[in-house]
Task: structure prediction
Amino acid sequence: MLTFRNGSVAALALALLASGAACAQANDPHLDLEGVETPSSLAWVKAQNDKTLPVLSGDPRFQGLQAAALKILSSHDRIATPDFIGRTVFNFWQDQTHVRGVWRRTSLESYKSADPQWETVIDLDALAAAEGKNWIWKGADCRPKTHDRCLVNLSNGGKDAVTVREFDLTTKTFVDPAAGGFVLPESKQTLEWLDADTLILTRDWGPGTTTDSGYGFVIKTLKRGQALDQAVEVYRGQKSDVSVRPEVLRDASGARVVLLTRATDFFHDETYLWNGERAYRLPVPQKAQIAGLLDGRLILRVLEDGLGAKAGDVVAVGPTATAGQVIFSPGPRQSVDQVAVTDHAVAMAIYDNVRGEVAVFRPTGATWVRAVLPGLANASVSLGSHADEGDEMFYSVEGFTTPTTLRLADAATGASETIKALPAQFDAANLVVEQKSAISKDGTQIPYFLVHEKGWALDGQNPTLLHAYGGFNLSKLPVYDPLIGKLWLERGGAYAVANIRGGGEFGPAWHEAALKANRQRAYDDYFAVAEKLIADKATSPRHLGAYGRSNGGLLMGVALTERPDLWNAVVVESPLLDMIRYTQLPAGASWIGEYGDPAIPAERAWIEKYSPYQNLKAGVKYPLAYITTSTKDDRVHPGHARKFAARLDDLKVDHLYFENTDGGHANGADPKANARRWALHYTYLSRQLMDH
Result:
């Protein structure tokens, strides 16, 4: 074995790795497209958009699809999503008149009526116009108990980074900084109210205070009237962390717990209790989600065994987090999707074979009494906002063809009433929903939903769109989507949703089965569902399309490169595609816990096998792909999509590319832009899958 003066073979390996990374970077002919708004990048984007938009917007179906999408997105028939602040109901609303939106409020009784009387609090269109800013709404965090002041989060063009400004709900004006109003410049930041005049927060405080993932790792307190450089540090993580963030929990008695969470990777946290002077590490499992505080006890869902519970359980633990009491333990085909804590109860959205129900649990001595709230069979459920004083909580119930119903419940008693019901947004009378399964490459049974016309012919001719996500413990549930219904199902298309591994449909183990070195399992699951649809003659490769975004966009890149024979359309939206450089792009390093680290040779070896950008090859017959992203996406860098499209150009492979210049990762800039986005999607899918 050779050794060297500077140490050992390990040193040589590191040197070779660095050299290899530098070589890979030097050999990337499209590296300049990672410059988000450089003149050369924007010129390339314009050229691509100028080629794509005439093709899709010039299709005779485009205008009708765009009009239908805009009608849905700006309809006054939509349920105005309620958000409790105290006992007042707030809502953020966008329509054709209020493109950027209005933040508004009404009383609970008025909200429950057929015609709520809304009072505008902030008109974002007027604010943006008055200040000459491209403001996009990102929510508000209001002062507990008094509910008179809020920290309003405003994003420039839809980025995750926000500017925070204090707002007075009584006068409906921003609080002048000269009078002590909080104003925090643009940053990715997490803030909590410690008291009426003190914040605890993490943000970019300047050089050396953000992680490799681009989030803050220094927590400070900031008092009213202090400048940022006067904030007092209370905890410091490490640059290699994903992030460090504060959380302030309060229960009905007024007890307050301040937690500091150090995310060492995307899924592992160290939890500290801060007593105002020092931070003490709590023996909470590193894979756990803290939901709230009830009677002085932390309520959390453990994602690994610990505290006397198994992965997936919801437990209550004392203030020192040394002993846990299991509130609910899901079975092998069950999972807990959401947990909420009210003054006297714990509410959960529980799924059994991807079918949901809402249950509430009340502590009674050493036991917990369970009550199931009214819902629907074969449906999705979602916990909404709950009052921060009392036990009132909203929850919704919906299915693929069943419009959303909003209910208001008393979590302590189990009483529940219907508040709103969404009118049908598309004609579902002739549609049927089936739950079926496919067998993946390793023998695992993969469930999927299939929505199609009654009595359809199994002749392989049905235009079918297959959707999945398969990552980050996120489940794909049977939700009511008016856009899919109106723009696809109503026009004769079929829609399938695959519950592949990597998601959370069956608890932590379902997610962990496709982590890191086992990532290929998620892709094999997806291909198995596609092959089953084809084998059943529900569709054929000529009429089968694939759609995914973000991590699902990575799935689409793999679908295109590994199994181009299965599809005639692939929508690759807001995607991760260059998995060798993903950690070098904003927010990418935060996902090492999901995908692995390409800087480690052993991990790079299995990432390289599927990384779509590196696996595009000459001489392969690829279907015409539609690749789309946003310039303002500061979560999944637009360079991924750009470089992938440029590589297809190198190979002289036809494709369509469109980049929205606003919207961010959530594509939520305004209903008009979103309507165009969906119209482009479905025009492309219609051309590829419906035309013969």
Observations:
- Confidence is low (pLDDT under 50) at residues 1-24.
- The CA atoms of residues 58 and 325 lie 61 Å apart.
- The first strand starts at residue 83 and ends at 85.
